[in-house]
Amino acid sequence: MPYVRTVLGLLSGLAACGAVAFLGYCVYFDRKQRGDPAFKLRLREKRRAQQQKAEGRGAQLWDPAKNEKLQLFLQEVRMGELWLSRGEHRMEVEHLSNALLVCGQPQELLKVFKHTLPPKVFEMLLRKIPLICQVLL
C-alpha cells in the first residue's frame, strides 16, 4: 500500500507541475502577443471585416425586395389563417397549399401544420399534395 500512495503522490505532483507549466506558457504567450503592435492592428482589421460582413449579410437576408418568395409565403399563410378563422376550409387549404409550393422546406411545414391544423383540414391538405406536385412538374 505505501508503494501505491507514493506512485499516486508522484503522479499528482507531475500533474500539478504540468498545470503550472501550461499556465506559465499561457501567461508568457499572452504578454508577448499583447506587446506586439502589429497584433493590435491585425485584430482591429479582423474585427472590422467581421462586422462589415455581418452587416452586409443581415441586410441581404431581410431585404423585402429580394425576398419575394418569403413575402408570398407569409401572405399565403396569413390568408390560410384568415380563412380558418372564418370556417372556409376549402379556401384555407388552397392558400396553405400555395404556401407549401413556395416553401423551401415543405416537410417541416407539413409537420407544423399537422400539429396546428384541425385533423379534417390537414387531411384535405394531404389530399391536395398530389395536385401540388403536378403543378411543379
Automatic annotation (TrEMBL):
It is a single-pass membrane protein. This is TOMM20-like protein 1 isoform X2. The keyword Mitochondrion applies. The chain crosses the membrane at residues 6-28. It is found in: Mitochondrion outer membrane. InterPro entries: MAS20, MAS20_rcpt_metazoan, Tom20_dom_sf. Belongs to the Tom20 family. It comes from Balaenoptera acutorostrata. It comes from the Eukaryota. Pfam families: MAS20. Keywords: Membrane, Mitochondrion, Mitochondrion outer membrane, Transmembrane, Transmembrane helix.
